Amino acid sequence: xxxxxxxxxxxxxxxxxxxxxxxxxxxxxxxxxxxxxxxxxxxxxxxxxxxxxxxxxxxxxxxxxxxxxxxxxxxxxxxxxxxxxxxxxxxxxxxxxxxxxxxxxxxxxxxxxxxxxxxxxxxxxxxxxxxxxxxxxxxxxxxxxxxxxxxxxxxxxxxxxxxxxxxxxxxxxxxxxxxxxxxxxxxxxxxxxxxxxxxxxxxx
Length: 204
Known about the structure:
Number of strands: 5
Distance between the termini: 34 Å
Helix content: 40-55%
Strand content: 5-15%
Largest sheet: 3 strands, antiparallel
Strand order of the largest sheet: 2-1-3
Number of domains: 2
Order of helices and strands: HEHEHEHEEHHH
Shape: elongated
C-alpha cells in the first residue's frame, strides 16, 4: 500500500474500533449479552452473511450464534476491521425494534446498479469505483514526479490521462448513482499548484 492509502485506512479503522469498544462498554453497563450488527447495500460477500443479524457475546445462547466466531470481530477482515462500514449495538429481545426484516436484508445483499446498459452487483460496482480511484491516485503521483523532475511533455500527457480518468469516474458514478468520494482520490505530495498546472497543461 501507498502511505496515504495506509494512513486513511488506519484512521478509519481506528475510529471504528474505538466506537466498537465504547459500544461493548455500553452493553456491559446494560447487562446486554446480545448485539445486532448494522446492514447496508454493497457489503462485501464475507460480511453480507452476518449483517443485520443478532449474536450472542457469550456464545452460550441456544437461539443466537456466537458474536466473535460469526463476525470475525477483533480481526482485520472481520466486523469493524479494515475498511468495514458496519457497526453493532446492544439488542434487547422484546424491546429493541426489529429494524432489519429478512426481505430487507435480501434486497441489500442482492442490490444491483446499471452501467453501460447492463445490471451489475452493487458490491462489484463499488470495487470498480475503487479501481478507478486507485488509477487516479497513481496518475497524480506520476504528475507530482514529472513536475518535480521538470518533464513538461510527460506532465502534459499525464494531465490528459488524469482528465480522462476523472471524466470516466464521473460518468460511472452518474450511471450507477454511486456517490463520488473525492477523499479517496487524494494523494500525499500532490499539491494544489500541481493540480492547477495539470488543468492548464491539458487545456493548452
